[in-house]
Amino acid sequence: MTTQQEFKNQKEQGQAVLEKLQGFLEQGKDFELFGISVDDSLEKLQKAKDKINQRKLKVVFIGGFSEGKTSIASAWLGKVVGKIDSAESSDEVAFYDTKDDEIEIFDTPGLFGFKEKGQGVNAEKYKDITKKFVSEADIILYVMNPTNPIKASHKEDLEWLFRTLNLLPRTIFVLSKFDEVADMGDDDDFESEFATKKDKSIIPSLNELIKLNANEKAQLKVVAVSANPEGKGLDFWLENQSEFKKLSHIDSLQNATTEIIKQNGGLESITLEAQNSILSDIVSKQLPQAITLQNKIKGDMQRLNESIKALRKDMERTNDKINDAQIALREFVARYFNDLIRQIKGTSLETFGDFMQKEIGSEGSLMSARVQNEFQRHTHSVINELKTSIERFDKERDDFEKAVISYGKQGVEWLQKSGVINNKNVILGRDLLKTGLEKIGVNVGTALNFKPWGAVKFANGALAAVAFFGLTLEMWDSYRQYEKEQKFQEAKAKIVEMLENQMNELLNTINDTKKFYALFSGYEPLKNALEDTQKDLQTLESASAEFEKWVEQGEIIEAEIVE
């Protein structure tokens, strides 16, 4: 694998790692409920991805003017390259035209050139220019003369490069034009000369000038090449690759540069920097607070959920009682009104007044009271249970809200985003309690079309039929003289019809489940609020479980980075 291929692989691996991290962050958007904010991290991650995508392999040459660097660059790439600035005497940083968008190669001839030409006064200025390029380089090729590789006069520059800038791990020391001192086609001669130059010249000189430690000596990368064997020109050698590889030993340089990219590619540092920065924010800062909040609220939700379950069981019992009341009232209305109808049919002119006074009452007051009392008798316990349930629901909801708010800003934000405390259950609980629950209960007059009384109809309807003959209750005795049985029977029939209509109205309301349940004005709202709250809690429990999985995923990613 070439150095370029290794670099490309590292870019792809870096992108894959960041893609995985991006997937983790995208999932984190679902957990804003717990105080997780990933927008900044996603932006930071995208910048890292762009940086890797735009990253080019940067190679910098360091060495004298006549060390054959251009030939080495061409041989290393396997194609002819040339400097944009082709003047070998130029002191400025030169850029090689590699005809490859993925690679940048620079030459810094002036680093040693200033001193060699007696221009030390400008050396510091040039160092500032050079520092930018060498600091950003993935690979530094320190090209040396084969007869005098390391010069004592370069001590200051060597200290600056390898101690101040710490570039030794990224540097390959290249003995250029090695065919001048060794037979490149004779492996024994080559190896002998190479070992001599490395072990008796380069390493001792570097050790004397910059004090190498044992590890640096062991890790030092030194190669010897001849980029243009026998001076035949690169065009010739590119057409004779097999012989060129044998005589140039350029493979040793390719292997060394590939190894440096594996060890110090630079891309891994971009990836790690992004990972560490993001995970430091998410895993180290946000997650501990979010986990603490989630654990506290999880317990509160469990308690509220248990209370809701208990209340729903109570509502089931309340529902059974409403059904019992429906049956009992249906039987009562049918029995009571049929009995009234039977009695009215059996009255005569002599007994009619008694019947009206004892059973119906003035403006139907007795009949109205009887019906109202019966309804209250069968609904009283249900209404009391509803009041108790609503009070309990409001208290449980209020206790839950207070507990979460006590967790501070995160708790308040959780309440706002969770929706478990919402307008529906707040209005149900607080508004009904504020009015003393007087709105809950059965009002026969308004709910059952049983006017105060529909005997207003009686007074103006049924009795009016009798009054047509000049009859009033107070003047009943005087009516005897005007008794006309046929007209009296017509009046009774009118009263029977009105009683039957009233009975049917009541039975229709009782038999219509929706209308009957509407008599218990708090039942349906409470039932719906309990169902909605339990659904919300189930949704939040699922979100909590997903959050725990997400936390585990973050811990795995963090552990992978540490490894």
Automatic annotation (TrEMBL):
Residues 58-162 form the G domain. It holds the Pfam family MMR_HSR1. Residues 212-542 form the Dynamin-like helical domain. It comes from the Bacteria. GO terms for molecular function: GTP binding. Keywords: Coiled coil. Residues 294-335, 496-543 form a coiled coil. This is G domain-containing protein. It comes from Helicobacter macacae MIT 99-5501.
